[in-house]
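yo

u said u wanted the structure for the complex thing, so here. seqs first:
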Amino acid sequence: MPDQWSGFSYIVTNLARFIRPDEVTFSGVNSTPPMLACLLAKRAYDFEFVYINVAGGVQPTPSKIPISSSDPVLSEGSTAIFANEDFYDLCTRGGMDLCFLGAAQVDGPGADERLRDRRLAQPEGAAPGRWRRRGDAADGAARGHLAHGTLETHHGREARLRDGFGRDARRGHADRSLHQARRQARPAIVASGGVARGRCAAARRSRSSRMARRRRRFPTAREIEALRSLDPQGEFERDAKVALR
Amino acid sequence: VGVDYDPYGSGKDVWVIPAIQPDIAVIHVNEVNELGDARIYGTFNWDRIMTRAAKKVFVVAEKLETVESFKERPELTMIPSFMVQAVSIVPNGAWPGSCWPLYEVDYPEVEDYMNTEGSLAAHMARAPETKEAAHA
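structre next:
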């Protein structure tokens, strides 16, 4: 049925529903679902938000939807090229509202396994290959947190930092920086290879009324049409291979 | 400035400096568009980092350019519009300083500005604002 979810449409559409009016939103490398989510939000929602991406695009109007989320076409139509170092800098200064991060793997509470174990090059466990990388936005944002005690600000987002994030990464120093990070940074859970889990369910109760109105059980007609226009042949959906368990 | 542990595990102390976050940065640029994107053609000195650090950015520009021209050369944009809160077009607004390559530092005028032997009234009488009022 066209008005019901597939695993893929559920992930992309609900990523798009994280985006809020007037916020600065970033989509990173090797992250086609967030890339599609940002583009979907631009097409399906009436409000304005600042969309920047790892290709340097600032409010881009790409003429086509690339396979890679770092394709330079994603800077097409921009009035500025926002360099990667500028994005990382913005993260450390708390200038990001919403950041779609690549990650090695995450658990239900939203802890990034790579950060918890500090084995950046060899993350454990099974994770879809597209998330098992380093040198991406997650690295930059996380290092910003470690160095400055601030992560990009995900105001009121659903999952929050797990204790292990700060304690292990900071070698036993669960200090004011972690608490500061908790207040300022509440990372959204990254759904990959399935639907979002963990604290999303609990956090859904605390979302704003605006989000509550916008978040619906089923995709809206505009959301369906937007995703269809972005992936008319189902290429991204086949590539994502989302399996529900 | 203080000493903290190295979060990357070297075991050595590292010096840390708190980030400075000005409330407002006011910078002068060559060109801006109606969205607030700004270009700096000359040396930008501290302009770049100040705009990244400040909570708000006000831009004073020599010239208003079209949005289309910025789309043609987006790599020339130093400050993207989403960082800019307000824009003002003030040709020659950096004088007696420089806005390269449009004009250089006016050293005689700077020296005169620094001259404390003259009267304040005489100094104020030579201000550009008084000349603008005379033209109005």
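Strands of chain A lie at 24-27, 50-53, 98-100. The longest strand of chain A covers residues 24-27.
cya
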